[in-house]
């Protein structure tokens, strides 16, 4: 089991380094409240993004 864990950690490290070298940005998923049309700070309802 340890060999797989070590191999997995090497793969994760390599992927993380590749992302940092490419300066790729990772956007988190939009929150459910925004998808549901929650009001923004100005009090206006936001349009759901399609």
What would you note in describing this structure?
The protein has a domain at about 1-25. It has about 50 residues and is mainly alpha-helical. The chain has two helices and no strands. The protein is about 50% helix and about 0% strand.
Quick gist of this model?
By secondary structure, the chain is an all-alpha fold.
Helix and strand sequence? HH
State the share of residues found in helices, binned by percent: 40-55%
Find the count of extended strands (DSSP E, 2+ residues): 0
Shape: elongated
What is the typical, i.e. mean, pLDDT? Answer: 70
The helix/strand class is mainly alpha
By DSSP (H or I, 4+ residues per run), the number of helices equals 2
Biggest β-sheet strands, sense, barrel? none
Give the distance, in angstroms, between the N- and C-terminal Cα atoms: 43 Å
Protein name: Transposase
Region (Disordered): 28-50
